[in-house]
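Side project, low priority. Logging it here so it doesn't get lost.
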Amino acid sequence: MADYVEGKRPVIEAMRTDVPLKKILLADNAKREPMIEDILRKARQRDIPVVRVPRDELDQKSARGSHQGVIAETKPFPYVGVGDIVGNANAYAEGHGGRALVIVCDHITDAGNLGAIIRSAEAVGASGLIIPNKRSGRVEASTYKSSAGAVAHLPIAQASNVASTLDRLKKEGFWACAATEHSQNELWDVNMKGKIALVLGNEHDGVSHLVLEHCDMAGRLPMMGKVGSLNVAQAATAFMYEWLRQNW
């Protein structure tokens, strides 16, 4: 299924943040005003085809009805296999004192959260990220923006079953650690040395009970204020840097 970026500014921003675009559809009656000229110039620089189409065709493709005469079609994201991420992690561990980090997302649905998690994962040197292939956020245009381009540098795989994926990682020598506010252990007391599969839960329900049963350990962030929890992307960053600190 094609992913579309609608509107003049969003299309310009997509090109600025290097979202891989297949083509740009431009209404045949679009006026050559400054923003349109900027789109055409950036498209030429990036060798992105610009196709003139009837405005009715854009209306049919538009999900929000706000295309302003221009829609960009993105290229499919090049997901890798879980085995590729395992291979990357094992190779990384050999050259980094036995440490490696793989992020496993248990049905995180918001593409913006996914992008922020990818940004942090790439920053700490994670070997890859695994997401479910159903009922989950996926890499789309907004993910490139929220990841600040990191999505282009981190291998990402889709898996059919999170629990069985954790079992596979554990057979490869990983310890599965869940980030959950229901844990009795604070993050600082959890041993995150070595090869860790960090499990992050859904924005509303957290890590599912089934997936928790396949985790070796769990930790929570202490909350000293009146807010009960952090956004999953914020919490993920704290856990990732604690892994890095313990393995430094």
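Brief comment: The domain at 82-246 is CATH 3.40.1280.10 (Alpha/beta knot).
Revisit when time allows.
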